[in-house]
Design brief:
about 35% helix, about 10% strand, alpha+beta, binds FE2/S2 (inorganic) cluster, about 200 residues
């Protein structure tokens, strides 16, 4: 009677490894390779984006992977939102997108197309933003200034969307500003500046 072939441990591993490698190399099926027809494929060449930046219509041609923060700084010369961490952890790059604060380092410039982007450097600031900028100066709430545009944007978002800004107390402001980090340690002055503006709603 014929004996079954002996399979050594090394032979088994070689066989399994080869099979796995071949499976991994299988060409994708047609339905996996082609994107659905109703999906717009962007890139690899740069794409045009148009949006309102601080009330002005701007255009840029950007690589698809470019973040909004880099687009603002390098394509549009808007240097207010900085990128201290570049990973959504410090609030230094905050902008308001359609009226809501978002970190511009974690969103693509392409996703701003057709939308409104507002920064702390708005050349024609709404009264609340103007009041915050004055209060930051009056309370000495900036040292090197690297985090300041993000701080002001977060404060602007907070007071603009609070049902009753005057009702905010120090704990509430601290909680709301917890995502904004300052390496120079200006947090206490920042909170004082925000409470000052919050308590004077009739002036903005
Ligand atoms: S640079 Fe965007 S959150 Fe820090
Ligand atoms: S003022 Fe320097 S990091 Fe905040």
């Amino acid at each position: 009677m014929a004996r079954p072939p002996r399979l050594s441990r090394r032979g088994l591993l070689r066989t399994v490894g080869t099979t796995t490698a071949l499976a991994a190399c299988k060409p994708p099926k047609a339905h996996e390779a082609a994107p659905p027809e109703d999906v717009e494929v962007l890139g690899p060449e740069p794409i045009p984006v148009t949006f309102l930046l601080d009330g002005r219509r701007v255009r840029a041609k950007v690589p698809v992977q470019r973040t909004l923060q880099v687009c603002l700084q390098e394509d549009l010369g808007c240097t207010a939102p900085k990128a201290p961490c570049d990973r959504g952890a410090c609030g230094g790059c905050l902008v308001r997108l359609d009226g809501v604060a978002v970190p511009s380092c974690t969103m693509l410039a392409a996703d701003a197309d057709g939308r409104c982007v507002d920064t702390a450097a708005h050349p024609d600031p709404p009264p609340l933003l103007a009041a915050l900028r004055r209060a930051f100066v009056a309370h000495d709430a900036a040292q090197c200034g690297y985090c300041t545009a993000g701080m002001i944007t977060a404060a602007w978002d907070l007071l603009d969307r609070a049902p009753e800004p005057a009702a905010l107390d120090e704990a509430a402001v601290r909680r709301a500003m917890a995502g904004n980090l300052c390496r120079c340690g200006t947090h206490r002055a920042v909170v004082r500046a925000i409470l000052d503006v919050a308590g004077r709603k009739e002036t903005w």
